[in-house]
Amino acid sequence: MSDPFFQPVSGFDLPRFAGVPTFMRLPHVTLEDPRLAEVDIGLIGAPWDGGTTNRPGPRHAPRQLRDMSTMIRAENSVTRVRPFEVANCADLGDVGPNPADVADSMARMTEFYARVKAAGVRPLTAGGDHLCSLPILRALASDGPLGMIHFDSHTDLFHSYFNGTLLTHGTPFRRAVEEGLLDPTRVIQIGIRGTAYDFEDRDFAAAVGITIIPIEEFHARGVNDVMAQARELVGNAPTYVSYDIDFVDPAFAPGTGTPEVGGPNSFQAMLCARELAGVNIAGADLVEVSPPFDPSGGTAYLGVSIMFEMLCNMVTAHGSA
Protein backbone atom coordinates (compact mmCIF):
# COMPACT_ATOMS: atom_id res chain seq x y z
CA MET A 1 0.00 0.00 0.00
CA SER A 2 1.32 3.44 -0.93
CA ASP A 3 2.05 6.01 1.77
CA PRO A 4 -1.16 7.97 2.53
CA PHE A 5 0.75 11.18 1.83
CA PHE A 6 0.92 10.15 -1.84
CA GLN A 7 -2.80 9.52 -2.25
CA PRO A 8 -4.61 11.91 -4.62
CA VAL A 9 -7.37 14.18 -3.35
CA SER A 10 -10.71 12.44 -3.87
CA GLY A 11 -13.59 14.10 -5.64
CA PHE A 12 -15.70 12.91 -2.71
CA ASP A 13 -13.63 15.13 -0.40
CA LEU A 14 -13.05 18.20 -2.56
CA PRO A 15 -14.89 19.01 -5.82
CA ARG A 16 -12.78 18.47 -8.90
CA PHE A 17 -13.09 22.12 -9.89
CA ALA A 18 -11.62 23.24 -6.54
CA GLY A 19 -8.13 23.27 -5.14
CA VAL A 20 -4.72 23.61 -6.80
CA PRO A 21 -4.66 21.43 -9.96
CA THR A 22 -1.69 19.09 -9.72
CA PHE A 23 -1.36 16.09 -12.04
CA MET A 24 -4.16 13.69 -11.09
CA ARG A 25 -4.59 15.63 -7.80
CA LEU A 26 -1.35 14.16 -6.43
CA PRO A 27 0.88 15.91 -3.88
CA HIS A 28 3.45 18.35 -5.23
CA VAL A 29 6.98 17.30 -4.31
CA THR A 30 9.92 19.43 -5.47
CA LEU A 31 13.40 18.13 -6.25
CA GLU A 32 14.56 19.80 -3.03
CA ASP A 33 11.91 18.12 -0.87
CA PRO A 34 13.27 15.34 1.39
CA ARG A 35 10.23 13.26 0.41
CA LEU A 36 11.56 13.00 -3.15
CA ALA A 37 13.47 9.93 -1.94
CA GLU A 38 10.11 8.24 -1.29
CA VAL A 39 8.67 8.88 -4.77
CA ASP A 40 8.56 5.97 -7.20
CA ILE A 41 7.00 7.71 -10.21
CA GLY A 42 7.12 11.44 -10.81
CA LEU A 43 4.73 13.29 -13.10
CA ILE A 44 6.54 16.24 -14.66
CA GLY A 45 5.59 19.13 -16.91
CA ALA A 46 7.88 20.21 -19.75
CA PRO A 47 6.32 23.51 -20.87
CA TRP A 48 8.51 24.14 -23.89
CA ASP A 49 7.97 24.13 -27.66
CA GLY A 50 11.19 25.65 -28.94
CA GLY A 51 11.52 22.88 -31.51
CA THR A 52 8.16 23.52 -33.17
CA THR A 53 8.41 24.30 -36.89
CA ASN A 54 4.80 25.25 -37.71
CA ARG A 55 1.91 25.77 -35.26
CA PRO A 56 3.21 26.49 -31.73
CA GLY A 57 1.36 26.02 -28.47
CA PRO A 58 2.55 22.86 -26.62
CA ARG A 59 4.40 25.06 -24.12
CA HIS A 60 0.97 25.69 -22.61
CA ALA A 61 0.02 22.01 -22.43
CA PRO A 62 1.22 21.03 -18.94
CA ARG A 63 -1.14 23.56 -17.32
CA GLN A 64 -4.10 22.40 -19.38
CA LEU A 65 -3.22 18.73 -18.86
CA ARG A 66 -3.00 19.26 -15.10
CA ASP A 67 -6.39 20.94 -15.09
CA MET A 68 -8.05 18.17 -17.13
CA SER A 69 -6.31 15.49 -15.06
CA THR A 70 -8.43 16.42 -12.03
CA MET A 71 -11.03 14.11 -13.64
CA ILE A 72 -8.78 11.07 -13.24
CA ARG A 73 -10.03 8.77 -10.48
CA ALA A 74 -8.35 6.13 -8.35
CA GLU A 75 -8.98 2.92 -10.33
CA ASN A 76 -8.62 1.71 -13.90
CA SER A 77 -12.08 0.32 -14.60
CA VAL A 78 -10.78 -2.23 -17.12
CA THR A 79 -7.55 -3.56 -15.59
CA ARG A 80 -8.68 -2.81 -11.99
CA VAL A 81 -5.24 -1.37 -11.26
CA ARG A 82 -5.28 1.25 -8.50
CA PRO A 83 -1.95 2.90 -9.32
CA PHE A 84 -1.76 5.26 -6.36
CA GLU A 85 -1.98 2.31 -3.96
CA VAL A 86 0.76 0.36 -5.73
CA ALA A 87 3.44 3.04 -5.93
CA ASN A 88 4.21 6.45 -4.48
CA CYS A 89 3.36 8.94 -7.22
CA ALA A 90 3.78 12.71 -7.07
CA ASP A 91 3.70 15.83 -9.22
CA LEU A 92 7.31 17.01 -9.39
CA GLY A 93 6.39 20.33 -11.00
CA ASP A 94 7.71 21.77 -14.24
CA VAL A 95 11.14 21.98 -15.79
CA GLY A 96 11.84 25.70 -16.07
CA PRO A 97 12.77 26.33 -19.73
CA ASN A 98 14.47 29.27 -21.39
CA PRO A 99 12.01 30.14 -24.17
CA ALA A 100 14.63 32.25 -25.96
CA ASP A 101 17.37 29.59 -26.11
CA VAL A 102 16.94 26.04 -27.41
CA ALA A 103 20.30 24.74 -26.21
CA ASP A 104 19.89 26.20 -22.71
CA SER A 105 16.36 24.78 -22.39
CA MET A 106 17.60 21.33 -23.37
CA ALA A 107 20.48 21.53 -20.91
CA ARG A 108 18.05 22.53 -18.16
CA MET A 109 15.82 19.55 -18.96
CA THR A 110 18.69 17.08 -19.01
CA GLU A 111 19.94 18.38 -15.65
CA PHE A 112 16.44 18.17 -14.15
CA TYR A 113 15.86 14.60 -15.33
CA ALA A 114 19.35 13.53 -14.27
CA ARG A 115 18.38 14.56 -10.73
CA VAL A 116 15.10 12.68 -11.06
CA LYS A 117 16.94 9.55 -12.21
CA ALA A 118 19.54 9.89 -9.45
CA ALA A 119 16.70 9.95 -6.92
CA GLY A 120 15.43 6.62 -8.26
CA VAL A 121 12.26 8.18 -9.67
CA ARG A 122 10.82 7.11 -13.02
CA PRO A 123 9.39 10.09 -14.92
CA LEU A 124 6.08 10.39 -16.73
CA THR A 125 6.24 13.66 -18.64
CA ALA A 126 3.63 15.97 -20.11
CA GLY A 127 5.20 17.99 -22.92
CA GLY A 128 5.91 20.24 -24.64
CA ASP A 129 6.82 19.48 -28.23
CA HIS A 130 8.59 16.30 -29.26
CA LEU A 131 12.07 17.75 -29.02
CA CYS A 132 11.55 17.51 -25.24
CA SER A 133 12.12 13.76 -25.52
CA LEU A 134 15.78 14.20 -26.50
CA PRO A 135 17.07 15.87 -23.30
CA ILE A 136 14.99 13.43 -21.24
CA LEU A 137 16.65 10.53 -23.04
CA ARG A 138 20.07 12.10 -22.50
CA ALA A 139 19.45 11.81 -18.77
CA LEU A 140 17.71 8.44 -18.64
CA ALA A 141 20.09 6.63 -21.03
CA SER A 142 23.21 7.56 -19.07
CA ASP A 143 23.72 3.88 -18.18
CA GLY A 144 23.24 2.60 -21.73
CA PRO A 145 20.87 2.78 -24.70
CA LEU A 146 17.15 2.25 -24.20
CA GLY A 147 14.53 0.64 -26.38
CA MET A 148 11.55 2.74 -27.40
CA ILE A 149 7.90 2.28 -28.29
CA HIS A 150 6.88 5.41 -30.18
CA PHE A 151 3.31 6.34 -31.14
CA ASP A 152 3.18 9.10 -33.74
CA SER A 153 2.13 10.19 -37.20
CA HIS A 154 5.75 11.15 -37.90
CA THR A 155 9.05 9.34 -37.44
CA ASP A 156 10.90 12.39 -36.06
CA LEU A 157 13.98 10.86 -37.66
CA PHE A 158 14.90 13.64 -40.06
CA HIS A 159 18.53 14.76 -40.22
CA SER A 160 17.83 18.49 -40.19
CA TYR A 161 15.45 21.30 -41.11
CA PHE A 162 16.08 24.67 -42.76
CA ASN A 163 19.51 24.02 -44.25
CA GLY A 164 21.15 22.36 -41.28
CA THR A 165 19.13 23.03 -38.13
CA LEU A 166 19.65 19.80 -36.20
CA LEU A 167 17.31 20.37 -33.25
CA THR A 168 13.59 20.51 -34.07
CA HIS A 169 10.59 18.41 -33.10
CA GLY A 170 11.17 16.46 -36.33
CA THR A 171 14.70 15.34 -35.44
CA PRO A 172 14.90 14.13 -31.79
CA PHE A 173 15.14 10.42 -32.43
CA ARG A 174 17.73 10.81 -35.21
CA ARG A 175 19.89 12.58 -32.64
CA ALA A 176 19.06 9.98 -29.98
CA VAL A 177 20.25 7.14 -32.21
CA GLU A 178 23.38 9.06 -33.25
CA GLU A 179 24.19 9.79 -29.60
CA GLY A 180 23.75 6.16 -28.54
CA LEU A 181 20.72 6.91 -26.36
CA LEU A 182 18.48 4.46 -28.22
CA ASP A 183 19.20 0.95 -29.47
CA PRO A 184 17.59 1.20 -32.92
CA THR A 185 17.00 -2.56 -33.11
CA ARG A 186 14.73 -2.14 -30.08
CA VAL A 187 12.80 0.84 -31.44
CA ILE A 188 9.33 0.53 -32.97
CA GLN A 189 7.36 3.46 -34.39
CA ILE A 190 3.61 2.97 -34.74
CA GLY A 191 1.08 4.92 -36.81
CA ILE A 192 3.34 6.67 -39.30
CA ARG A 193 1.42 8.42 -42.07
CA GLY A 194 0.77 11.62 -44.00
CA THR A 195 2.26 13.31 -47.01
CA ALA A 196 6.05 13.44 -47.12
CA TYR A 197 8.91 15.71 -48.12
CA ASP A 198 10.91 12.62 -49.09
CA PHE A 199 11.82 9.24 -47.60
CA GLU A 200 15.09 10.30 -45.99
CA ASP A 201 13.74 9.55 -42.51
CA ARG A 202 12.46 6.11 -43.44
CA ASP A 203 15.66 5.28 -45.28
CA PHE A 204 17.58 6.09 -42.10
CA ALA A 205 15.23 3.87 -40.09
CA ALA A 206 15.78 0.97 -42.46
CA ALA A 207 19.55 1.47 -42.41
CA VAL A 208 19.84 1.30 -38.61
CA GLY A 209 17.16 -1.32 -37.96
CA ILE A 210 14.24 0.72 -36.62
CA THR A 211 10.85 -0.98 -37.10
CA ILE A 212 8.10 1.19 -38.60
CA ILE A 213 4.42 0.26 -38.55
CA PRO A 214 2.62 2.51 -41.06
CA ILE A 215 -0.96 3.40 -40.24
CA GLU A 216 -2.28 1.15 -43.04
CA GLU A 217 -0.60 -1.85 -41.41
CA PHE A 218 -1.81 -0.75 -37.96
CA HIS A 219 -5.44 -0.68 -39.10
CA ALA A 220 -5.13 -3.95 -41.06
CA ARG A 221 -3.60 -5.89 -38.15
CA GLY A 222 -5.33 -4.23 -35.19
CA VAL A 223 -4.09 -2.92 -31.87
CA ASN A 224 -3.55 -6.26 -30.11
CA ASP A 225 -1.39 -7.78 -32.84
CA VAL A 226 0.74 -4.66 -33.34
CA MET A 227 1.27 -4.19 -29.62
CA ALA A 228 2.22 -7.85 -29.20
CA GLN A 229 4.99 -7.23 -31.75
CA ALA A 230 6.04 -4.08 -29.89
CA ARG A 231 6.31 -5.91 -26.57
CA GLU A 232 8.29 -8.74 -28.15
CA LEU A 233 10.66 -6.34 -29.92
CA VAL A 234 11.64 -4.35 -26.82
CA GLY A 235 11.78 -7.44 -24.61
CA ASN A 236 12.49 -7.11 -20.89
CA ALA A 237 15.21 -4.46 -21.09
CA PRO A 238 14.55 -0.82 -20.12
CA THR A 239 12.34 0.94 -22.64
CA TYR A 240 11.17 4.50 -23.16
CA VAL A 241 7.60 5.18 -24.31
CA SER A 242 6.95 8.33 -26.31
CA TYR A 243 3.37 9.16 -27.23
CA ASP A 244 2.69 12.05 -29.61
CA ILE A 245 -0.98 13.02 -29.45
CA ASP A 246 -1.00 13.47 -33.23
CA PHE A 247 -0.89 9.68 -33.43
CA VAL A 248 -4.63 10.00 -32.83
CA ASP A 249 -6.92 11.04 -35.68
CA PRO A 250 -7.62 14.81 -35.51
CA ALA A 251 -11.35 14.08 -35.39
CA PHE A 252 -10.65 12.90 -31.82
CA ALA A 253 -7.56 14.99 -30.97
CA PRO A 254 -7.65 18.25 -32.95
CA GLY A 255 -5.55 20.17 -30.42
CA THR A 256 -2.10 19.54 -31.86
CA GLY A 257 0.31 21.37 -34.12
CA THR A 258 0.81 18.86 -36.93
CA PRO A 259 -2.38 16.82 -37.34
CA GLU A 260 -2.57 13.94 -39.82
CA VAL A 261 -5.86 12.33 -40.87
CA GLY A 262 -6.46 8.58 -40.87
CA GLY A 263 -5.31 7.73 -37.35
CA PRO A 264 -6.88 5.67 -34.56
CA ASN A 265 -9.91 6.78 -32.61
CA SER A 266 -9.74 7.68 -28.93
CA PHE A 267 -10.57 4.14 -27.75
CA GLN A 268 -7.82 2.61 -29.89
CA ALA A 269 -5.45 5.31 -28.68
CA MET A 270 -6.08 4.38 -25.05
CA LEU A 271 -5.93 0.66 -25.82
CA CYS A 272 -2.43 1.06 -27.29
CA ALA A 273 -1.26 2.51 -23.96
CA ARG A 274 -3.08 -0.21 -22.02
CA GLU A 275 -1.32 -2.86 -24.11
CA LEU A 276 2.06 -1.73 -22.80
CA ALA A 277 1.48 -4.16 -19.91
CA GLY A 278 4.69 -6.00 -19.06
CA VAL A 279 7.04 -3.50 -20.71
CA ASN A 280 9.95 -2.39 -18.53
CA ILE A 281 9.16 1.34 -18.80
CA ALA A 282 12.12 3.47 -17.74
CA GLY A 283 10.17 6.64 -18.50
CA ALA A 284 7.38 7.89 -20.72
CA ASP A 285 6.03 11.08 -22.23
CA LEU A 286 2.84 12.47 -23.79
CA VAL A 287 3.70 15.35 -26.10
CA GLU A 288 2.40 17.84 -28.68
CA VAL A 289 -0.93 18.75 -27.08
CA SER A 290 -1.51 22.36 -28.14
CA PRO A 291 -4.14 24.20 -26.07
CA PRO A 292 -4.60 27.06 -28.58
CA PHE A 293 -6.08 24.48 -30.95
CA ASP A 294 -8.01 22.69 -28.19
CA PRO A 295 -10.60 25.16 -26.89
CA SER A 296 -12.89 22.44 -25.52
CA GLY A 297 -10.08 20.66 -23.67
CA GLY A 298 -11.03 17.34 -25.25
CA THR A 299 -7.57 16.67 -26.66
CA ALA A 300 -5.99 17.34 -23.27
CA TYR A 301 -8.47 15.06 -21.53
CA LEU A 302 -7.65 12.27 -23.96
CA GLY A 303 -3.97 13.00 -23.33
CA VAL A 304 -4.21 12.63 -19.56
CA SER A 305 -6.38 9.52 -19.98
CA ILE A 306 -3.55 8.01 -22.05
CA MET A 307 -1.07 9.11 -19.38
CA PHE A 308 -3.17 7.30 -16.76
CA GLU A 309 -3.06 4.09 -18.81
CA MET A 310 0.73 4.40 -19.09
CA LEU A 311 0.98 5.12 -15.36
CA CYS A 312 -0.99 1.98 -14.55
CA ASN A 313 1.57 -0.08 -16.45
CA MET A 314 4.50 1.77 -14.91
CA VAL A 315 3.28 1.05 -11.37
CA THR A 316 2.45 -2.57 -12.20
CA ALA A 317 6.04 -3.07 -13.31
CA HIS A 318 7.16 -1.33 -10.10
CA GLY A 319 5.00 -3.59 -7.97
CA SER A 320 6.40 -6.76 -9.54
CA ALA A 321 10.02 -5.61 -9.39
Protein model, in words:
This protein has helices at 61-68, 83-86, 102-118, 133-140, 172-178, 200-208, 215-221, 223-234, 266-274, 298-320; strands at 41-46, 89-94, 122-127, 146-151, 182-192, 211-214, 239-244, 281-287. The chain is of the alpha/beta class. It has one domain (4-320): Ureohydrolase domain (Arginase, Chain A), CATH 3.40.800.10. Strands 2-1-3-8-7-4-5-6 form an eight-stranded parallel sheet, sandwiched between helices. The longest helix has 23 residues, at 298-320. The mean pLDDT is 95.
Which regions are unreliable across 5 or more consecutive residues at pLDDT < 50? none
Rg calc: 18 Å
Distance between the termini: 15 Å
Question: Overall mean pLDDT score?
Answer: 95
How many structural domains does the protein architecture include? 1
Strand order of the largest sheet: 2-1-3-8-7-4-5-6
CATH class: Alpha Beta
Named CATH architecture: 3-Layer(aba) Sandwich
Number of strands: 8
Topology diagram in text:
Elements: E1 41-46, H1 61-68, H2 83-86, E2 89-94, H3 102-118, E3 122-127, H4 133-140, E4 146-151, H5 172-178, E5 182-192, H6 200-208, E6 211-214, H7 215-221, H8 223-234, E7 239-244, H9 266-274, E8 281-287, H10 298-320
Parallel strand pairs: 1-2, 1-3, 3-8, 4-5, 4-7, 5-6, 7-8
Helix pairs in contact: 1-10, 3-4, 4-5, 9-10
